[in-house]
Amino acid sequence: MGANNGKQSGSEGKGSSSISSDLSSSTDQTSTKAPKNAATSEDSDLSMRTLSTPSPALILPPRSSPGMLNGSSTSSSTFGTETIAMVHTPPTSLTHPQRSLRQPRDLQGAPIDILPDHAFLQIFTHLPTNQLCRCARVCRRWYNLAWDPRLWRTIRLMGDVLHVDRALRVLTRRLCQDTPNVCLTLETVVVSGCRRLTDRGLYTVAQCCPELRHLEVAGCYNVSNEAVFEVVSRCPNLEHLDVSGCSKVTCISLTRDVSIKLSPLHGQQISIRYLDMTDCFALEDEGLHTIAAHCTQLTHLYLRRCVRLTDEGLRFLVIYCPSVRELSVSDCRFISDFGLREIAKLEGRLRYLSIAHCGRITDVGVRYIAKYCNRLRYLNARGCEGLTDHGIEHLAKNCLKLKSLDIGKCPLVSDAGLEQLALNSFNLKRLSLKSCESITGRGLQVVAANCFDLQLLNVQDCDVPLEALRFVKRHCKRCVIEHTNPAFF
Questions:
Q1: Bias regions of kind Low complexity — which residues (predicted)?
Q2: Distance from CA of residue 134 to its chain's centroid?
């Protein structure tokens, strides 16, 4: 439908006449146009009356008079300067407007009208949620196509000022139109960065989306344990959960009512495999114990900057979750060599390990990892100042499949460790030596002469001569060198 049809729908349908075409606070827009004093509490439901065929659009409403709030002829409403999810009737323009015989042929409809439905659907699959809602307001044909169930496997909302609780309620209500109270198509919900998300929004998702498999609420610090428990209990197929930055979340578990109904092995009912709890500062060993006991199928677990965790929590993790392949405990300052000894019990299943800035880790703990986790591909030990050439030697001789190694800010690692690494780790592709004070050009030349597949080398703040950098460039032609030498380019 072209511009002409857009005008028709605006003049014929009351629902679309009062809706702004500027979605300045939607998911693909910046928040520079957002109101400065956005409300933080959910207001009375002024615009949530379900029409026969509702269609939400996530917009920043234009200036409106107070009389418009309760008017029955408008489909958009503004409570103060708050951004909310709008409900409006579908466009009333014809699916295929009749061409006027008096108009020139080039003015009898836009060229886009000739596209078949499957082409439109293919285009719509690339649009974010807010833009898809805008397309539903163009004409009746676009409305029907935009609400095709195949396009609504994912809801993606972003923005500090977006009233995400109400947006989720409107969207799920529309998606539940054919199957009352249940949305069987929605599998992914991404609302990361929506700081106004509260437990109410998650309760809506939990109640309406039983087929949910992927949920991201990163940075939504108003979310609490109770709402997360509700989602986990009502969405048995949930596999991917990102609650990073949710400081109120201290545990992942089923609700008490669900736990009572299940057997003592009810932890197996939680299907979560990917869990990101980065920056969940309140997480403690007891919480990790509960998580491990309930989420026994975990394969990816990220606990970056969970500063209260200790070696005891890692012991619980290894007992209940033997399938962990990727683990990050970076910046957990209480993790020591004893914790690495527990992690080493994962043996050949472990592929990814980050222990960056864990100052209590030394060669002893790295030796455990090197001995038992011989299929390790990635190791981040940046800032582990107790690591020396001996630890690097154990890694090089046992972890022959190592592809990525970060040992930046390890002042005790020298050229001797790099020589052992170069003579054994032929699959190495990424190596970071940032701020390694003992590294010289000789070590770099040995690495370049043996690791031909090297793709990234970080030697920032390292005292290496210009000749060594040129030597690396000649032998590893595909290698990107990150450096601080102004003479090398």
A1: 1-31, 65-78
A2: 24
- CA neighbours closer than 13 Å in the CB half-sphere of residue 308: 13
Burial state string for 285-312 with b = 16 or more CB within 10 A and e = fewer than 16: bebbbbbbbbbbebbbbbbbbbbbbbbb
Same domain, 322 and 392: no
Amino acid at 107: L
How many CB atoms are located within 10 Å of the residue 437 CB?
13
Q: Report how many domains make up the chain.
A: 3
Instruction: Report residue 33 as tokens.
Output: 């146009």
Q: CB of 394 within 8 A of CB of 419?
A: no
Same domain, 327 and 340: no
Q: Do 119 and 225 reside in the same domain of the chain?
A: no
pTM: 0.78
Between CA 469 and CA 478, with CA 473 as vertex, the angle to 5 degrees is 140
Q: Are residues 364 and 345 in the same domain?
A: yes
Is residue 77 situated within a structural domain?
yes
Q: Nearest-5° angle of CA 178, CA 180, CA 181?
A: 130
Is the Cβ–Cβ distance between 83 and 60 less than 8 Å? yes
Of 93, 124, 149, the domain-final residue: 149
The answer to whether position 164 is within a domain reads no
Output 485-488 pairs: Cβ under 8 A, ≥24 positions apart.
Answer: none
Residue ending a domain, among 300, 331, 362, is 331
d(C-alpha 335, C-alpha 309), whole Å: 7
Same domain, 243 and 301: yes
DSSP 43-66: ---SS----SS-EEEE-------G
For residues 358 and 461, membership in a common domain is answered with yes
Question: CATH number for the domain including 485?
Answer: 3.80.10.10
SS3 144: helix
Tokens representing residue 125 in the block:
């699959």
Dist CA 205 CA 218 (whole Å): 16
How do the pLDDT tens digits run along the chain, 489 residues long? 444 444 444 433 333 332 233 333 333 433 433 333 333 333 333 233 333 334 444 443 333 333 333 333 333 333 333 333 444 556 655 444 444 445 455 445 677 778 888 888 888 888 888 888 888 888 888 888 888 888 899 999 877 778 899 999 989 888 887 777 788 889 999 999 888 999 999 999 999 999 999 999 999 999 999 999 999 999 999 999 999 999 999 999 988 877 766 655 444 578 999 999 999 999 999 999 999 999 999 999 999 999 999 999 999 999 999 999 999 999 999 999 999 999 999 999 999 999 999 999 999 999 999 999 999 999 999 999 999 999 999 999 999 999 999 999 999 999 999 999 999 999 999 999 999 999 999 999 999 999 989 999 999 999 899 999 999 999 998 999 999 888 776
318 and 363 in a single domain? The answer is: no
| DSSP-assigned letter for residue 386 | B
Q: Which domain holds residue 359?
A: 336-489
